[in-house]
Specification:
Elements (H helix, E strand, L loop, with lengths): L1 H7 L2 H20 L6 H5 L12 H14 L4 H10 L4 H23 L7 H14 L3 H5 L2 H6 L1 H19 L12 H15 L5 H20 L7 H15 L2 H6 L6 H6 L1 H28 L4 H19 L13 H18 L5 H45 L4 E5 L26 H8 L3 E5 L8
Parallel strand pairs: 1-2
C-alpha cells in the first residue's frame, strides 16, 4: 500500500500515466480516417483546386469568410494539416489532448504534490462524459474546432489563474517580459477569433478570475485587462464576418431566445445531469469540511463557465452535441477541483469510492468504444479499396458504402457520411474530388434485403 501511495505521488508515476494517455490517443487518431468536412477542406474555397501552398491557403480562407463561417483560425489549421500527411495531425492531436487533460489536472491539483490518480480521473471523466467523443476528439475538423479550442482556452486562462491563486510556476505564469506580453496579446486576439462558444467562455472566465484576483489583492490596476480587450476585439472580428452573420444567426428576438431555453436545459440535464448531481454533492461536502475559499471559488467559477458555454448556444441556428465539449469539460474541472481538496479531508473515502466506480464505467465504455473505432477504420479501408477497384475499371461514377459508427466514440457517429439522394452535393462532391472521379454515389448497406 505504501508503494502504491508513493507511486501515485511521484513524478515518475505521473509521467508513466501521461505517456500511456498519449499513446492510446495517438493510436485512436491513427484509426480515425478523414471524414465528411475533411474532404471538402482539402480544396480551396477560392478556385476549387487542392490547397498545397501558403498563398493558396490564404486565398481559400479569405473566401471562407464569405461562404462558410468566421472561424478562420480553426479552419486555417484544418487546411494546413490537410497539406501534410495525416500522421502529423495524429501526433499533434494526441499532444493537444494530453495538454487539455494535463491542464485540467494542474488546475485541480494546484499547490499539491503529484497525484497520478487525479490525472487519470480527469482523462476518464473526459472519455465518459464529453458528448460525441469521436467528433470532438478524433475527427480532424471536429478536433481542431472543439478540442483545440479547449487547449487554447487553458493557455489563455493561465495568467489569470496565476493572479487569483497567487501561484506562479511552470504552468501558472503571468507574462513578465515585453516580448512575452506582446506574444500573449497576439495569442489573445487569435483566441478570440477561434470559437463562438469557447472563446466567449474563456473571456468571461478570465474576466471573473481577474476581478477576483484584484479584489483579493485590493488592487485595481493590472495589465491583464489588455489581453481581455484584445480577445474581445478578436471575437467581434469573427462574429461580424459576412458568412458568420449569414449562417450562424439563430433566434432574432427576446421571445425567440427565451423559447429555446427549455430545450437547451433538457440537453444539459440529459447529457450532464449526473455530473451536475456530483458537483452539487461535492460543493455540499466542501462546505461541511471547510475547503479553502480559493478552491471553492475556482470550482464555482468553472461551473458558471460551464453554464455560460452551454447557453451561448441559444443564439445559434444549429446546436449539435459536439458544441457541448466546453460545457462538459469545464464542469469536469469544477468537480475535480473539489475532489482534490476533499482527498485531504475525512471525505477521502467517498472520493476514492467515486473514482473506483468511475474506473469501472470507463473500462466498459473504453473496450466498446475502441472496438467501434477499429470497426469504422476497417470499413474505411474497405471503402478505399472499393474505390480503387472501380477507378481501375475506368468508372467515373463510383458507388461507395456509407460508414456507420455504433457508438459516440467513433468520429463518424451522427455525421452525414454520404448523401444518398443527391451525389452532386456535400459531402459527396468533396469525396469525388479526393478520389479523382466525377461523382460518388452513396449506398446504404444497412438497407439491403437479407436473403
Amino acid at each position: 500500500m505504501d508503494r502504491i501511495k508513493k507511486f501515485n505521488s511521484s513524478r515518475c508515476g505521473l509521467l508513466i500515466a501521461m505517456t500511456a494517455v498519449f499513446i492510446v490517443m495517438f493510436v485512436l487518431n491513427c484509426m480515425t480516417p478523414y471524414l465528411v468536412d475533411d474532404y471538402g477542406y482539402m480544396y480551396s474555397y477560392a478556385d476549387g483546386t487542392r490547397v498545397r501552398t501558403i498563398s493558396g491557403l490564404i486565398q481559400s480562407m479569405y473566401q471562407h469568410c464569405f461562404k462558410v463561417n468566421g472561424r478562420v483560425v480553426a479552419h486555417t489549421l484544418e487546411q494546413a494539416f490537410l497539406m501534410v500527411p495525416k500522421a502529423v495531425f495524429n501526433l499533434a492531436n494526441a499532444l493537444m489532448f494530453l495538454f487539455v487533460i494535463y491542464s485540467g489536472y494542474r488546475i485541480c491539483n494546484y499547490g499539491k504534490k503529484y497525484n497520478t490518480v487525479l490525472f487519470l480521473a480527469t482523462a476518464m471523466l473526459y472519455w465518459v462524459f464529453v458528448p460525441v467523443f469521436g467528433q470532438v476528439t478524433l475527427w480532424q475538423d471536429g478536433s481542431l474546432n472543439y478540442l483545440w479550442a479547449l487547449g487554447f482556452l487553458f493557455v489563455f486562462l493561465r495568467p489569470y489563474l496565476a493572479l487569483y491563486l497567487g501561484e506562479e510556476g511552470r504552468f501558472f505564469r503571468i507574462p513578465r517580459t515585453w516580448c512575452l506580453q506582446i506574444l500573449f496579446l497576439v495569442f489573445a486576439f487569435l483566441f478570440g477569433m477561434y470559437s463562438e462558444i469557447t472563446s466567449l467562455t474563456g473571456i468571461l472566465l478570465a474576466t471573473g478570475f481577474l476581478i477576483a484576483g484584484l479584489l483579493r489583492k485590493k488592487d485595481r490596476k493590472n495589465r491583464l485587462w489588455l489581453p481581455i480587450i484584445i480577445a474581445i476585439a478578436g471575437y467581434l472580428c469573427m462574429i461580424l464576418m459576412p458568412a458568420e452573420q449569414m449562417n450562424k444567426a439563430g433566434a432574432s428576438s427576446l421571445h425567440d431566445l427565451i423559447s429555446v431555453i427549455p430545450k437547451h436545459t433538457e440537453m444539459l440535464r440529459g447529457s450532464l445531469g449526473l455530473l451536475w448531481v456530483m458537483w452539487g454533492a461535492l460543493i455540499v461536502l466542501a462546505a461541511v469540511y471547510q475547503l479553502s475559499h480559493q478552491q471553492t471559488v475556482v470550482s464555482i467559477g468553472f461551473a458558471l463557465g460551464s453554464i455560460a458555454a452551454h447557453y451561448v448556444l441559444i443564439a445559434a441556428v444549429f446546436q449539435p452535441y459536439r458544441c457541448m465539449c466546453t460545457t462538459s469539460f469545464l464542469l469536469i474541472v469544477a468537480c475535480l477541483v473539489l475532489t482534490a481538496g476533499l482527498f485531504d479531508s475525512p471525505a477521502h473515502a467517498i472520493c476514492k469510492a467515486a473514482i473506483g466506480a468511475l474506473t469501472v464505467c470507463f473500462l466498459f465504455s473504453f473496450v466498446i468504444g475502441v472496438f467501434d473505432i477499429h470497426a469504422v477504420y476497417s470499413r474505411s479501408r474497405e471503402r478505399d479499396l472499393s474505390a480503387a477497384e472501380q477507378i481501375l475499371q475506368g468508372k467515373q461514377e463510383i458507388t461507395l458504402d456509407i460508414i456507420y459508427g455504433s457508438t459516440e466514440y467513433s468520429g463518424v457517429r451522427y455525421l452525414k457520411d454520404l448523401d444518398l439522394e443527391n451525389p452532386d452535393t456535400w459531402p459527396n462532391t468533396g469525396m469525388a474530388k479526393y478520389y479523382g472521379v466525377a461523382r460518388v454515389i452513396g449506398h446504404d448497406p444497412q438497407n439491403e434485403n437479407v436473403e
